[in-house]
Amino acid sequence: MKNISNRHAQISQTGNFTYLTRTQFTFYASDSILNSVLGGIAGKRVSIAGYMQTKIGKTNLVRLVVGPQGAVSISDTATARNVLKSLGVRLRMKKVLQVLGIVAGTPGIIRSIYRSLYHKVTVYAIYLGENSNIFVDTCNPSRTIQILKRNNLI
């Protein structure tokens, strides 16, 4: 059985949406290495909750969040890290915000989040995940939470 825990995550609902802090892996990989990473993670039966890939020349910049939607799995995070390390991938792990409870097709949500943040913190990425969840990668996740709470977005 997988160790699924929310004790290392901050879960709250104070505004329109619920949020959760998650661990994001950021790395660069060739097409063949990325294929091996995704195959290795899937082969270990670990789900991907959030994924963003950008091609830069012949290399892929990847942001990846693993584990079940709406919860943190310590074992899934460790498994994904082990897969990446076993393939020699240099990675960065950091906390990002997962915004839950967004109704698919609702106009203006990403704009509202971005508009609240861009003058106050550096926004590295905003991307969609499973079930229309939004992942927000900034220079300061704690400050990001404060700003979004103040604007009644979370």
Brief sketch in words of this structure:
It contains four helices and nine strands. With 154 residues, the chain is α+β, with helices and mostly antiparallel strands. Strands 2, 3, 4, 5, 7, 8 and 9 form a seven-stranded antiparallel sheet that branches.
What does this structure look like?
The protein has 154 residues and is α+β, with helices and mostly antiparallel strands. The protein has one domain: 2-Layer Sandwich (VC0802-like), CATH 3.30.2130.10. The chain has four helices and nine strands; from the N terminus they run βββαβββαβαββα. Strands 2, 3, 4, 5, 7, 8 and 9 form a seven-stranded antiparallel β-sheet that branches. A hairpin with a 4-residue loop joins strand 2 and strand 3. The chain starts with a strand and ends with a helix.
> What's the overall geometry?
globular
CATH architecture: 2-Layer Sandwich
Helical content band: 25-40%
Q: Indicate the proportion of strand residues.
A: 35-45%
Instruction: Return the string of H and E elements.
Output: EEEHEEEHEHEEH
The domain tally reads 1
Enter the CATH topology name: VC0802-like
Mean pLDDT: 89
Total number of helices: 4
Question: What is the CA-atom radius of gyration, in angstroms?
Answer: 15 Å
CATH superfamily membership: VC0802-like
Distance between the termini: 32 Å
